[in-house]
Specification:
The chain is mainly beta and 188 residues long. It contains two helices and twelve strands. It has a four-stranded antiparallel β-sheet, with no helix packed on it. The chain has a three-stranded antiparallel β-sheet with strand order 1-12-11, with no helix packed on it. A three-stranded antiparallel β-sheet has the order 2-3-6, with no helix packed on it. The protein is globular, with a radius of gyration of 17 Å.
Amino acid sequence: MGTAAGLSSLTDAWAASAPRLYARSRLVDVHGEPIKVRRIAARTNYVFSYPFAATPCFLLDLGRPVAAADALLRADGATYAWSGGVGEHHSVVAYSAICAHKLAYPAREVSFIRFQPARSPTSDGNVIHCCADHSVYDPAAGARVVSGPAPQPLAAILLDYDAARDELFALGTVGAEQFDAFFRKYDF
């Protein structure tokens, strides 16, 4: 392989694993009021839409500091790093709520994928579990796949914490997005 070809594949791999930035969006509650981090209940599912109105995401306070995760692996072989939790206690994380395997997602009527605080017959507690085919993700480790058929972690939502206002902003994603496949599958 020549230098140019090697450089090209290195550049392609970096571009595939680099964060993708979208519009900076303040996270708000159902009344349009900014979400205050201190009011987020620990180990509870919150769902918001980002970066599109039809793409659900999880917002979770894991109740403990969450360190960054390196060497997360996408299905295409590219690796990436995730920056860890945000907020005063570095315990708040956000992920795309579209399963990396079957593209299952939470809806008001039924949720095939959710944060599971307690152990169940099919998985441990403190994980994101998709019951479509039992893919299990660790939200404290960049949504790394713990078990099941998912080929890669959930895409992480990059958050910015405004400490003075105790508010959160979504900035973009890191990891493999499933948005295009999701839109095709569900005909959005």
